[in-house]
Write a structure and sequence with these properties.
Number of helices: 2
Structural class: mainly beta
Largest sheet: 6 strands, antiparallel, barrel
Number of domains: 1
Shape: globular
Number of strands: 6
CATH class: Mainly Beta
CATH superfamily: Trypsin-like serine proteases
Helix content: under 10%
């Protein structure tokens, strides 16, 4: 389980936008080395899943990482993957740096966690 049942995500209700397209959630979770597209308020760029990590406290599960530094305002950005039917949402940016290591790492909430949070099945 990632992010202890999706507790790092929030669901907001907004008026529907008739012309706004919606991406499906990816069927699987991130895989180390997987190429992705990062789309935030500040950038749209290719990236790669750096790895899957476990939290020190097992109750918190784990997360996927991008070896990138995110700037304020980029939390909640989309991590997209390409699949047979086009792009899908692989996860959402959750900006948490590991200051102790000195590495710039950005963690993401994976699609499986989002699916559980929304109560959907693949």
């Amino acid at each position: 389980t990632f992010y202890r049942g999706g507790q790092d995500a929030a669901l907001l209700q907004a008026p529907a936008l008739a012309a706004a397209p919606a991406l499906p959630l990816c069927a699987g979770d991130p895989v180390p080395g997987q190429p992705v597209r990062l789309v935030t308020a500040l950038r749209d760029m290719p990236a790669e899943i750096a790895g899957l990590m476990r939290e020190a406290d097992p109750r918190h599960g784990g997360y996927a990482e991008l070896a990138l530094r995110m700037e304020p305002g980029e939390s909640g950005g989309a991590v997209l993957a390409s699949g047979p039917a086009g792009e899908c949402l692989l996860g959402l940016v959750s900006h948490r740096e590991d200051a102790a290591s000195g590495l710039s790492r950005t963690r993401i909430v994976p699609a499986g966690t989002l699916r559980g949070f929304l109560g959907r099945r693949p």
